[in-house]
Amino acid sequence: MTHVCNYYMTDIQAAFAEKLISACAGAGMKKVFFANSGAEANEGACKLARKYSSSKYGKGRHTIVTLLGSFHGRTITTLSATGQESFHKDFGPFTEGFVYVPGGDIEALDRALDKNTVAGFLVEAVQGESGITPQSQEYLSAAGKLCEERDILFMFDEIQTGMGRTGTFLACESYGIKPDVVTLAKSLAGGLPAGAFLAGEKVADVLQIGDHGSTFGGNSLAAAAGLAVLDTVAKPEFLKENLRKGEKLKAALKSWNHPKITEIRGMGLMIGADITVEAWPLLEALITKADPGLLLLSAGKKTLRFLPPYIISDDELDQGLDILKSML
Ligand code: PLP
Questions:
Q1: Is residue 147 part of a domain?
Q2: 129 CA distance to ligand 1 centroid (A)?
Q3: Residue 310's domain spans which residues?
Q4: Is the pLDDT of residue 299 over 90?
Q5: pLDDT per position as a tens digit, 77-129
Q6: Which residues line ligand 1 (CB under 6 A)?
């Protein structure tokens, strides 16, 4: 059986929930709701924040603050949450109640987090889509303090950064932050569609039976795959390897002193390199002209985005670097 109606509990879904909660214990997560994608997970997180706020403070306190340059999905509401004009073109009108602030600017955040109108602050610890931009420790710590003082939910979109990508199981752990809500997807079920939003202690009981649902969310097949992923990934020695390989990749790129590479940044196996030329023709040439070819991503127009598979070997890393260097 790949799927069982959500009116019933299945052992495999319960086991997946327990294991995922225990993998996210360092971030203080207590409960999980399973969805099918990242956008659906973020929508769920926004619903949770709005219900928390509306049941406690009444109507009108529903705004979600996000960052300029953020990426949270492609549904009408998650596009609303996404602070990048380029994704909005042609698709309005959007869901109301989203406000953007520039990342790193704590005064702008202080002004935006109005305790009478704002329900939540949704943030990526490292912005993926727009250029591999890690937020600073000072910024995220100050943001957490403001959220706590004003009873605004601090929500981490870990769809790209989570599941060990940045070298800890969740990126918020490396900042020592325990958010109210965390969202996951992408590698959650190792290539099968799956998403999840997780709730910390304060908001674990906000959503009650009937408040939210998803026909295929947490289906038996995705749950079995997710359990297998966690058995491999949620282990300190595995996460340490992601960190080591990421450092190796960054060190190699730096050692080239290449005139076309101007900056290298990132955490774990999530690395960005700013280049002086357009990234897209280079990515194309890496597939069509290099032999063997190399699959790379861009983030924005002039940043190369490295998100290698966790199983990449040191030899494969070296080989990929050689291909990139010769094509650059
Ligand atoms: N949030 C972040 C940070 C993402 O990187 C993505 C996808 O790239 C999403 C949300 C949307 O996830 P999905 O494509 O599974 O809806």
A1: yes
A2: 9
A3: 237-327
A4: yes
A5: 999 999 999 999 999 999 999 999 999 999 999 999 999 999 999 999 999 99
A6: 37-39, 42, 71-73, 124, 128-129, 157, 159-160, 185
Residues 230, 271, single domain; the answer is: no
244 shares a domain with 201: no
Copy the structure tokens of residue 73: 């999905």
Q: Which of 72, 84, 188 to mutate to test the pocket of ligand 1 (most atoms within 8 A of CB)?
A: 72
Residues 319 and 191 in one domain: no
Residue corresponding to tokens 């409960």? 31
CA dihedral sign, ordered 79, 80, 82, 86: positive
- When divided into structural domains, the chain yields a total of 2
Bridge partners, residue 118, by sequence: 63
- pLDDT tens figures, 187-204: 999 999 999 999 999 999
Q: How far is the CA of 16 from the centre of ligand 1 (A)?
A: 21
Domain boundary among 166, 200, 234: 234
User: Side-chain half-sphere of 97: how many Cα atoms within 13 Å?
Assistant: 21
CA 96–ligand 1 middle distance (angstroms): 20
CATH of the domain at 128: 3.40.640.10
If one residue of 159, 214, 297 were mutated to test the ligand 1 pocket, choosing by the most ligand atoms within 8 A of its CB, it would be 159
Residues 111 and 175 in one domain: yes
Q: Which residues are known to be catalytic?
A: 71, 157, 186
Q: Is the same domain home to 312 and 246? A: yes
Amino acid identity of residue 188, one-letter, is L
Residue 2 lies in a domain: no
Percentage of residues in the chain with pLDDT exceeding 90? 98
Contact 182, 172 (CB under 8 A): yes
Same domain, 230 and 288: no
Look at residue 250 and tell me whether its pLDDT is greater than 90: yes
Residue 180 has pLDDT above 90, yes or no: yes
The C-alpha angle 82, 86, 87, rounded to 5 degrees, equals: 50
Same domain, 230 and 241: no
| Cβ neighbours for 287, distance < 8 A, ≥ 6 positions apart | 293, 294, 295
Report the mean per-residue pLDDT for the chain. 97
Task: Answer whether residue 138 is part of any domain.
Answer: yes
Q: What is the pTM of this model?
A: 0.98
